[in-house]
From TrEMBL:
It comes from the Bacteria. Keywords: Membrane, Transmembrane, Transmembrane helix. Signal peptide: none annotated. The keyword Transmembrane applies. This is Uncharacterized protein. The chain crosses the membrane at residues 36-57, 63-88, 95-117, 137-160, 191-208, 228-247, 259-281, 287-307, 328-346, 366-386, 393-416, 428-451, 463-484, 504-525, 532-551, 563-584.
Length: 592
């Protein structure tokens, strides 16, 4: 049925030169739910402009520059792009643009909600530049603005998947017919690029939006931001990174193009006003954060579109990815990362001058167990027979090195800020090198997994429901394991995700995101691979659980905090899940 629908909609040019067929759908074939989503996208753009025009606070001071036309253009870009793709008979791409832009709407809503809590701490010179410290009261325009974010989020929700299309319809055929899947080369290369771009974009979004010499306009990074704005920035950064990876890794070219384009447009809506304010407002200066975030996503968008120009399977077979070489490359990078981590653990972290005593770098002790785990999983990748089975665990467990590197850098930065006589030693630089090599190894291992899955039919696989209970428990334990302190002592303030956000918090945030992602993916993975993923996550959490044992000397009368106990519980839940995933096969649909 699907193939007949697709064939009937082909133009003669679409079948030339052996290229995969492309469906061109008219307006009459657009699902009703997508039409509503387009309307909500336009309505959301209007509300996003109307709110600032009405005023977000009572008796608002003037904006730093005339930003309303710029805000209007940026708000209108996602829905106009979506409508344009629908008019060009590519509604699946238009729907994906709405999905991508909607992913950042909740975080942006939290950022704007800061106007209701304390507008003086918002750091939004395109909206207002305070001149006095008198409190500012929220005005009706703020609720209009928040309603706009809600409309954008709802538009993306309605556009997800088939957007309500009836199975067998022309629009649904784009998702049902797997002959239109992306090539292995395009999907794998896009995914690796997306991992790099997502990391850069997340870091850029979490940095200060500009530098400020104006006492009334704070240039706050995520560490210095007020709580509500901090959660908004974290949500925006996480959603932007997730959207980039989800879009670039999609098997559907329309979804890949549209989601990445939508995420980029939404990030531009946040960063372009920051860049404009830095150049147009007195005593504000450009900062690297917005430039890094926007540049990374623009480059990813261009790459995804270029990589999907050719979808000829005959050409793709000639450039098929070699999983053996990828396994070997990941193993070598893993060995190099483990060696650098061991060198960091045994090298001087801090150089002290002026006769001062050198502080003890307790956190660097964790490099040893992290390196041992990575070393144990990297060696099998060098041998063809063991590489495929070990790779999923390695791709997850290698993140333990960046986790430790973030904690170690926290101690280095703290000591350097306390005294000019303290500087970073060779151990600190080796830890950074180990973290970079570990991330590269994880990316290569992920690319090998993409290449392997291209040869496996996963279309009929369902979720393994026997894993539901242990995976749910592991997810809850993981949030507490990384979000709560592993050590308690009088006068000791541990870094955290929800509060006391410091350099070490980056590692905690990375750890919980990776573990939660593994929990989600493993429920749908093939049993051996799902079990290996969960085992790798257990190794990652186990390294985190060792922090109390190896670093308790840094505080007097230290006791294990809730993070330690929840880490141990998470390890147990992940190991149970890994065992179940390895021995129990989920039900699959049978073909008739």
């Amino acid at each position: 049925m699907t193939s007949r629908i697709r064939t009937s909609l082909l133009r003669p040019a679409d079948q030339a030169d052996g290229a995969l067929p492309v469906v061109r759908i008219g307006w009459a074939d657009v699902p009703g739910r997508l039409r509503v989503a387009l309307f909500l996208g336009v309505a959301g753009a209007v509300l996003l402009v109307a709110g600032p025009a009405m005023g977000l606070v009572e008796d608002a001071p003037d904006a730093g520059f005339g930003a309303l036309p710029l805000l209007a253009v940026l708000a209108a870009v996602p829905p106009l792009l979506a409508i344009g793709f629908v008019a060009a008979k590519a509604p699946a791409t238009g729907a994906a643009v709405l999905v991508g832009s909607a992913m950042l709407a909740p975080g942006r809503a939290l950022l704007d909600a800061q106007f209701a809590v304390d507008a003086l701490l918002t750091s939004r010179p395109e909206i207002l530049v305070p001149t006095v410290l008198a409190p500012l009261t929220a005005a009706p325009g703020l609720w209009v603005l928040l309603a706009g974010h809600g409309a954008v989020a709802l538009a993306g929700l309605l556009a997800v998947g088939r957007a309500g299309a009836v199975p067998g319809s022309p629009y649904a055929a784009e998702f049902d017919d797997h002959s239109a899947d992306r090539s292995t080369k395009a999907q794998g290369t896009s995914l690796v690029l997306a991992l790099v771009a997502a990391l850069l974009a997340a870091v850029g979004l979490l940095l200060a939006p500009f530098r400020s010499d104006n006492a009334f306009v704070l240039a706050s990074s995520v560490i210095d931001a007020p709580p509500l704005a901090r959660f908004g920035v974290l949500l925006v950064a996480g959603a932007g990174a997730a959207g980039a990876v989800f879009g670039a890794g999609s098997a559907r070219p329309p979804v890949a193009r549209g989601v990445v384009l939508g995420v980029t447009a939404a990030v531009a809506g946040l960063t372009v006003p920051q860049l404009a304010a830095a150049t147009a407002v007195d005593r504000l200066h450009l900062a690297p954060g917005p430039v890094i975030a926007l540049s990374a996503l623009v480059a990813l968008t261009v790459a995804v579109w270029l990589l999907n120009r050719q979808e000829n399977p005959a050409e793709d077979r000639a450039t098929e990815l070699d999983t053996g070489r990828l396994h070997l490359a990941a193993g070598v990078l893993g060995l190099a990362s483990a060696a650098a981590a061991l060198a960091a653990a045994t090298s001087v972290q801090l150089v002290v001058t002026g006769g001062l005593d050198r502080p003890v770098a307790y956190s660097s002790r964790l490099f040893v167990p992290a390196a041992i785990v990575v070393l144990a999983l990297a060696v099998p990748l060098l041998f063809a027979r063991a590489a495929a089975a070990t790779r999923p665990a390695f791709a997850v467990a290698v993140i333990a090195i960046p986790l430790v590197a973030a904690s170690s850098s926290d101690a280095v930065f703290t000591a350097m800020s306390a005294s000019d006589a303290v500087s970073a030693g060779p151990g600190a630089w080796l830890g950074g090198i180990a973290a970079v090599l570990a991330v590269a190894a994880a990316c290569v291992a992920a690319l090998a997994g993409v290449a392997e899955r291209d040869d496996v039919d996963l279309t009929q696989r369902q979720a393994n429901l026997t894993l539901a209970a242990p995976l749910a428990a592991a997810a809850l334990f993981a949030i507490g394991a990384f979000g709560l302190p592993v050590l308690k002592a009088t006068g000791f303030v541990a870094p955290g995700i929800w509060s006391h956000f410091r350099p070490a918090s980056w590692g905690l945030l990375l750890g919980v995101i990776v573990v939660l992602a593994v929990i989600t993916v493993s429920a749908f993975a093939r049993p051996p691979r799902g079990g290996a993923l969960l085992a790798g996550a257990a190794a990652l959490v186990a390294v985190h659980a060792l922090e109390f044992t190896l670093t308790s000397d840094r505080a007097e009368r230290a006791t294990a905090g809730p993070g330690t106990w929840l880490s141990l519980a998470c390890v147990a839940a992940l190991l149970v899940s890994a065992l179940i995933a390895a021995i129990a096969r989920p039900a699959v649909k049978t073909r008739r």
